[in-house]
Structure formats: C-alpha cells, structure tokens
Design a protein that fits this description.
Blueprint (H helix, E strand, L loop, with lengths): L2 E3 L10 H9 L1 E3 L5 E2 L20 E2 L24 E2 L3 E5 L13 E6 L5 E5 L4 E5 L7 E5 L13 E7 L4 E6 L4 E6 L2 E10 L5 E4 L5 E5 L4 E5 L6 E6 L13 E6 L5 E5 L4 E5 L7 E5 L15 E4 L4 E6 L4 E6 L6 E5 L13 E6 L5 E5 L4 E5 L5
Antiparallel strand pairs: 1-2, 3-18, 4-5, 6-29, 7-8, 8-9, 9-10, 11-12, 12-13, 13-14, 15-16, 16-17, 17-18, 19-20, 20-21, 21-22, 23-24, 24-25, 25-26, 27-28, 28-29
Length: 376
C-alpha cells in the first residue's frame, strides 16, 4: 500500500489532537474497500461573533417516528424551537476530576431515561449523569491515563448499543474502539484496534461506524467481522467530494446514509449507502462565520425530516441546515465565546432527549447545556 506525507493544508486549521496526529502519521492514497484492524497501542497527543439573534428560533412541526431498539437516529422534537438560554445540567464547576466536574467533554449521548453519557476527554473516562442529578458516576475508564483494558485515553465519543446494553467508546489516543457492558463494567472488550477513532455511530441494525482521521475514512464494523468495510473516504486528505481532512463525529440515518464532520474542510459531508463520493450538506464555503460557513465543526446529528444540526465549534454556535439550502440558521449560541447561559465556548457534541430537548457538550466551559423545547 503506498503512502504519502500529508501536508495539504495548514495544521492550524484543525484541532490540536487531529493536527498532531496528521503530523506524525501517513495516509493511504490507494482506494480500497476493506480495512483490517490490527492490535496497536500508540502514543498520540493530542472568535468570531456572528450577528445577534431573536430569543427563539422556530420553523415547522416535527413528527416523532421509529422505535427500533438499536438505531442511532435520535429522538426528534415535536417542534423546531428551543429556548435560547441554556441550563447547565452536568459540570459547570470548572475543569477537574471530581464527580461534579468535567474536563473538556466531547461526545454525549442521552438515553431513554434522560441519563447523559459523557465522553470526558481529559479525565480519561465516560461518566453518566442521571436525570436531575448533581453529580455523575464513572461507568467506563477513570483509572488513569493508560492503555490497559480498564483504562481509556482521550475518549472523543460514545454511543449506546441498546440490543447489547453496552457503551461503544472512541478510545482515541489508545487507537481503539472499546465496548463496556453497562451491567458488567469490569469486563470491557476491544472490538476494533489500530484506528484513531474520531467519532462513532450505530445504525438500526446494530452495525458500528467509526471515523478515522489517520486514514481520512469511515468504516462499518459488524459483529464477527475480521475486516471493517470502508463506507466513506479513504482517498487521502483533501477537499474533493471523495476526500476528508480530519473526519470527526459521524451520524447514520435510517437509510444508512453517513453524515461526516469534515473539520479541516469546514463542512459536513453526506455519503449515501454504497456511494463513491459524498455531497456537501452544510458549510463548504471556506472557514468563516457567515450563515453559509462553518469554522472547524465538531459534532453533527440529523432529525427525521433530514435537518442537519452542527456543533460549529470555533463560531460558538449550533447551526441547522436543510439539505439543499445555501445558508444555515443559528439554533442556539452565536453570541461569542463565553460562559453566560446564552453562550457556548467550542461546542463539541450534540444530542436530543426523548422530549426533543437539545443538549450540547460545551467543551471549554466544561459543562453540558440543555436547551428546552418550546411549544407553539
């Protein structure tokens, strides 16, 4: 397999963890359909103020659908409207490792009981905050910075496999994806090795999808697989329709389309099932703070109407696009980087609860913000 040193854009345009990784790794330029994981544990290291907005954002009504127990597709709000002042429901007590603190939360997942599962990046753990709790509990990792099986190193994302009642965790700096059963946290499993996991998702059939910034691709993994099947990218770093630059968090819809946060290209790409290239569905107009631009996005979720929600990291806002639109709209944030209730500072992950309330991992503020849904 041929390789080339990637130097196609300034590393300052991607987060430091991704930039450091790109600097030390080489990326394949050969298009292949299969990726064989092998066991590797490697050392990896890791404002713009848009115009103000009205108190509430509103458009059309939602219809809630789908009850598949394994689907990663989020529960959808009945209305497309949220209060603009967020409520801190986890963290918010500065950076730290106490159970009421977080240290740069990245990925989040809200379960059916409104418990919040948080990839607590620099605390090397996943914590669960039960509904209305004042503190969390460690449910994976939390045993220091290392590569032992009971350790996690720089978790960037987490989802739940409902069929197996298990957490699927992006153990980024250990270059692996691990599974922790919620009822037996003492026996975690490595399910994929040798992958610098940026984001993880699960489809309605239970297949697991993983983005790999080191190889600029997304693979799908099924139970019992020796090989993961490449479903997006794998053509080196770049800005072509079949390329990524630093793919991060991902989302899989009911039709098996994969939405990929393409950090370095400041865009969200959609790859339909069996596609050879993606389409730009948000951003892609250079780095900036206009409504048709993104600035190092880090999170994405999609509702049942196909509306795309983006954690627009360096613009400190959450944006919404409808496929085919030129411009997006600001959903929450967009009032400069800060710690007030109407502000975010580097939002990094998104999720809905069963009632359609929006949750945002507010990275630099070390907190999770809840934006309550408004009725018409």
């Amino acid at each position: 397999m041929t390789t080339e040193t990637t130097n196609m854009m300034k590393l300052s345009t991607v987060p430091i963890e991704t930039a450091n990784m790109i600097n030390r790794l080489t990326v394949t330029t050969e298009t292949i359909d299969k990726v064989k994981p092998s066991t590797v544990a490697a050392e990896t290291t890791n404002m713009l103020k848009p115009s103000t907005m009205t108190t509430e954002i509103t458009t059309q009504q939602f219809t809630t659908t789908a009850d598949n127990p394994t689907t990663e597709v989020q529960n959808k709000p009945k209305y497309n409207k949220w209060k603009q002042n967020g409520i801190t429901i986890a963290g918010g007590h500065g950076s730290g490792n106490q159970l009421n603190q977080l240290y740069n939360p990245r990925g989040i997942y809200i379960d059916d009981n409104k418990a919040i599962l948080i990839a607590d990046f620099y605390n090397n753990r996943v914590v669960e905050w039960k509904y209305n709790s004042n503190s969390g509990q460690v449910i994976a990792g939390g045993n220091g910075d290392g590569q032992n099986l009971d350790q996690i190193r720089r978790p960037n994302d987490v989802v739940v496999d409902k069929q197996k009642n298990a957490l699927i965790i992006c153990d980024m700096a250990n270059e692996r994806v691990t599974r922790w059963f919620r009822q037996n946290q003492t026996n975690p499993q490595i399910i994929i090795s040798d992958i610098y996991c940026g984001g993880v998702a699960i489809d309605k059939d239970g297949s697991i999808y993983i983005s790999d910034p080191a190889h600029s691709d997304v693979i799908r993994w099924d139970e019992g697989d020796t090989y993961g099947t490449r479903v997006a990218g794998g053509n080196g770093n770049g800005d072509l329709q079949n390329q990524f630059w630093g793919p991060n968090k991902i989302f899989v819809d009911e039709d098996y389309s994969v939405y990929v946060v393409d950090i370095g290209n400041h865009r969200i790409m959609k790859w339909k099932k069996d596609a050879k290239e993606g389409i730009i569905v948000a951003g892609g107009n250079g780095q900036g703070n206009h409504l048709n631009q993104l600035n190092e996005p880090t999170g994405v979720i999609v509702d049942n109407l196909g509306q795309i929600y983006v954690a627009d990291q360096k613009n400190h806002r959450v944006m919404r696009w409808r496929e085919g639109d030129t411009d997006g709209s600001i959903v929450v944030g967009g009032n400069g980087g800060g710690q007030e209730s109407n502000q975010l500072y580097h939002p990094s992950g998104l999720s809905f609860d069963v009632e359609g309330n929006l949750y945002v991992a507010d990275d630099v503020n070390h907190r999770i913000q809840k934006y309550e849904q408004c009725s018409e």
